[in-house]
Amino acid sequence: MSPAPEEHTPAPPPHEHPEPGAAAPEPGAAGRYGEALFRPEHPQEGGRIDHAALVYDPFTRERLYALGAGPGRRCLDVGAGTGTVARWLAEEAGADEVVALDRDTGRLAPFAGPRLHVRTADITRLAAEPGLGTFDLVHARFVLMHLPERRELVGRLAQLLNPGGHLVLSDAVDVPDPSDASSPYRRTLDAMWRTLGETIGTDIAAVRGYPHLLRAAGLEGVAAELVCPPLTPGSPLAAFWTETLERMRPELLADGRLEPAALDEALAYLDSPRLAELGPGMLTVWGRLPAPEGA
C-alpha cells in the first residue's frame, strides 16, 4: 500500500506546550505506520521494536497469564511485530494455537510452526479475511493508537472472541510534568506526539478511553492498569526512545516543529546520568465476552 500524500496541519510554535491529554490533531491525508514512518525494511527497525519488547513483554506476559493464556486456548496477536508475544504464547504459555497477524511478516515467518501460524493481513481489513475464525484471546499492543478508525476496530476485534474470551489492548500514554513545558526533552516529546498525529494519525489521548470502548463493544469485567517502567540511561527503554527520535529526525525538524539544537539536547539527556523523567507508559485494558443468555 502506498501512503497518500502527506498534509501537515500547522504545528504550534515551539514554545507552546499542548495541554496534557489534548487530543492529537485530525490528520489530513495521513499515511500509515510502516509507510509514512517506521518502514519495516529499515535495518534498525527490528532492533528498535525489540528494545520495546524487552521492556514491556514482562508486563504483557503477566497480564495474559493472569487472564488464562495457556493450554486449551486459541490466541490472536494483532500487529505481532517481531513475534515476541506470539512466540511466548505458543512456546512458553503452551497455547494450543497462536495466529500472529501483521501487515509485514518478514520477521515472523522464521518462527512459524505447528502451533504458531503467521498471517499477513491488515487489521483495518479484517472483515475481508476469510477463515480467521474466533479466539479465546485477542491481543494488540501499540497498534490501535496509530489507527484513526480505532473505535470501529475495537468492536471488530471483540467480534472475534469466543464466549468467555478476552480482548487485551495496550497502548502508550504520556504523563508529562505540568510544571515542565519548555525543557528540550519535553518539547521534543511534544513535537514527537504532534508529528505522529499529523503524519499517521496517532492519538494517545484516545487511549484513556479504551475501557469505555470495550464496554460499548459488549465486554464485561473491563479493567485497566498503567505501567511506567524506569527510564534510565543505557536501558532498553532509553534506547527505544533514542532510536525512535533519531528515526523521526527529518519529520521532527520539518515545518519548524522543533529546532535541531533542542532535539540534540534531548537525545544527549536520554544518555546522561542527569536523566530524571517519568517516561511514557503503557496502558493495558481488558474485557471478557459474556456467554449468551441461557447458554
Approximate shape: globular
Helix content: 25-40%
Rg (CA only):
19 Å
Within the CATH hierarchy, at the fold level, what is the topology of the domain at 45-175 and 202-229 and 280-288? Rossmann fold
Q: Please give the largest β-sheet.
A: 7 strands, mixed
Helix/strand/pairing class, anyone? alpha/beta
Q: Beta fraction of the residues?
A: 15-25%
N/C terminus separation? 43 Å
- Total helical elements: 8
Instruction: Using the coordinates above, name the CATH class of the domain at 45-175 and 202-229 and 280-288.
Output: Alpha Beta
How confident overall, as mean pLDDT? 86
From the 3D coordinates, which CATH architecture of the domain at 45-175 and 202-229 and 280-288 would you assign? 3-Layer(aba) Sandwich
Q: Please count the beta strands (DSSP E, at least 2 residues each).
A: 7
Q: Stretches where pLDDT falls below 50 for ≥5 residues?
A: 1-29
Secondary-structure element string: HEHEEEHEHHEHHHE
Q: Spatial order of the strands in the main sheet?
A: 3-2-1-4-5-7-6
Structure description:
There is one protein chain. The protein is of the alpha/beta class and 295 residues long. It has a domain of 168 residues: 3-Layer(aba) Sandwich (Rossmann fold), CATH 3.40.50. The protein starts with 44 loop residues before the first helix and ends in a 7-residue tail after the last strand. 39% of the residues are buried.
